[in-house]
Amino acid sequence: MEYWQEEIRSSTWVVVQGGNKILGIAAAKPPGGMDNYAHPEEACFIESVWIAPSMRRSGVGERLVTYLIEERRKVGIQRFYLWVIDHNIPAIDLYDRTGFKRTGRSGPLPARQGREIQYLLAFDSDVIDDYELERNVHARELDRKRFGITYRLLGSAADQGSLARS
Q: What is the pTM of this model?
C-alpha cells in the first residue's frame, strides 16, 4: 500500500469514470535519475495509461491523455515523454493521433517480450491555445452526454481522505 500511496503523491493522476466505476486512468510522473535528458521543471513521463475494454476505440483514451497533458501544462510542463511496447499497436495509434513523435530511443524488454519505444510530445510554449482548449473541453462534454462519463484530476481532499482510510 505504501508503494501506491507514494506513486499517487509523486505523480499527477487523471481518471475517466462512469458513476462509481473507473473506466480509464493515466499518470504523469517527474523524470527519474536515469532520465538526465528530461528536467522536472519542464518535462514529465506519461505512464499507466489504461482504458476499460468497453471504452476502447471510442476516443476516450485520446481525450484522457489530452486532459492529463492540459493539467500538466497549467504548471509549465512542455515536454511529455512516454514508453510503449513496440507491438502495442492500439497504444501506438493513440499516441500518434495525439501528436507524439518517436525520439529514436528504444530498449529491449526482459524475456524477449519485444522492445520499448520512446515517444515525445513537445510544446514551444506553456500557453495553452484557447481554441484547442475549448475543443477539448467540448469533446469531454460530448462524452459526458453520450457515455455518462466524466474526467477528473485525482488529488482532491475527498480523494486524499479515501486514500487515508484504505
A: 0.85
